[in-house]
Specification:
single chain, Immunoglobulin-like, three-stranded antiparallel sheet
Length: 141
């Protein structure tokens, strides 16, 4: 494939992606969420029974979301998951490189926590979309 053919193929893919985004905004939003990574920077139990979690969210390619729902997982000694909490993160402070640090609080597991991790569910079940404000914005539910 020569340079002209490669450029034409790239343009066709770009146009097809734009058409898909306009035709099915829900599918486009789900695809957009899949480009995000959320990592735990640190966590600290509070005296009020809550757990303060510092997170770093990184956006992939494309338009940035203003908020993103992630699942915070609290782990025990054998890496078993002791507690799960969904939280919606405010990403409005994301910098030009697509990175933002945010803090969130969740109910702490009442026992010894060995670690905390975060997960962006790339394909959440449709019957749980009401727990994802960034999906509700486009789904009309």
């Amino acid at each position: 494939m020569n340079l002209r053919q490669s450029a034409a193929a790239s343009l066709l893919l770009l146009l097809a992606a734009s058409a898909c985004r306009e035709a099915d905004p829900l599918a486009a939003r789900l695809a957009q969420r899949s480009h995000y990574q959320v990592d735990v920077v640190g966590f600290s139990p509070r005296e009020d029974g809550r757990l303060l979690v510092e997170l770093e969210a990184r956006a992939g390619m494309g338009e940035h979301l203003s908020r993103l729902t992630a699942t915070i997982r609290q782990h025990g000694t054998d890496k078993e998951i002791l507690a799960l909490n969904r939280v919606t993160l405010d990403l409005s402070g994301m910098d030009a490189t697509g990175v933002v640090r945010v803090f969130t609080e969740v109910a702490a597991y009442q026992g010894e926590i060995q670690g905390v991790s975060a997960l962006v569910e790339h394909a959440p079940p449709a019957d749980e979309y009401d727990q994802f404000p960034e999906i509700l914005e486009v789904s009309g539910s």
